[in-house]
Amino acid sequence: MTHQTHAYHMVNPSPWPLTGALSALLMTSGLTMWFHFNSGTLLTLGLLTNSLTMYQWWRDVVRESTFQGHHTAVVQTGLRYGMILFIMSEVFFFAGFFWAFYHSSLAPTPNLGGYWPPAGINPLNPMEVPLLNTLVLLASGVSITWAHHSLMEGNRKHSLQALLITISLGIYFTLLQTSEYFEASFTISDGIYGSTFFVATGFHGLHVMIGSTFLTICFLRQLKFHFTSKHHFGFEAAAWYWHFVDVVWLFLYISIYWWGS
Amino acid sequence: MAAAAAVGTRVSRLLGRSLPQQGRPMSSGAHGEEGSARMWKALTYFVALPGVAVSMLNVFLKSHHGEHERPEFIAYPHLRIRSKPFPWGDGNHTLFHNPRVNPLPTGYEDE
Lengths: 261, 111
Prior knowledge:
By secondary structure, chain A is an all-alpha fold. Helices cover 75% and strands 0% of the residues of chain A. Chain B has helices spanning 2-14, 36-62. Chains A and B meet through helix 3, helix 4, helix 5 and helix 7 of A and helix 1 and helix 2 of B.
């Protein structure tokens, strides 16, 4: 008989790492073709293969764990380490953009007028929609904690309700931010102010969308009874990611929206 | 009391960064503390969501719909930079271009 005598997960051979790597190549070369040669084909192909890879890879993880039982305690510990390390890498990713912002705003150059915000820039009022955005994300942090505790206490109805509230708040944030992007009197092409503002908040917005998607997957999985009250790491990973997104926003709000105005 | 606890919880959560939820001694899939879900539900409905509602009201009260005054256009060289055309449209409009408040390098479009 072919039984393993250890608790680890020796994953079966899979094509998704290869398709993922290929999709990365298609996306990067596709961006080049789009920016410099006015062609979007490679990029579209890259985005398509990237989405397909993610869908199938993670579908396989769910199959291996929920349906085949490969995620023992030690496997789950490894996944925890992995998620923590990934989030840490994202922290450093954002740290770079905050560095850029502070580098430019702490010592504004003469061509900006020697002050910050630079001449001709009318920043958004931090006490209006940005403040609402802050409360929306903080509230979503509370509701996702409610969802987690409900899950741990085996309350199906409440965990679904709380997750739904969290996802709705995330979507509300995205809608508000999109509106702000259209309403702002400054654009990404408005010098270093525009660059730092839109790149930092833009990547944050992308992460909100990713986090909302992750939470939606958790919602669907909970509907399908995938989680137990004691084993629901997918949900915990989504919750960690969501809190991370919230914390990044708080730093953005305080640095760029508030101090930077 | 619940409000003070909520603020305390929120502050410790803010400091938590990328770590799993703070102050949960029985976390990581272990049995959840009895009744704690009830507290978070109460926090959600009595603190978090009302806070959002108040903030929405604040935005509504402060908004000036259909404001016609907009900053005068000054062709600063450090703004509206066009080192290379954008890869969409005519290459001269940003992705979230709003003709009412975003002038092109040559000025507002509707003037």
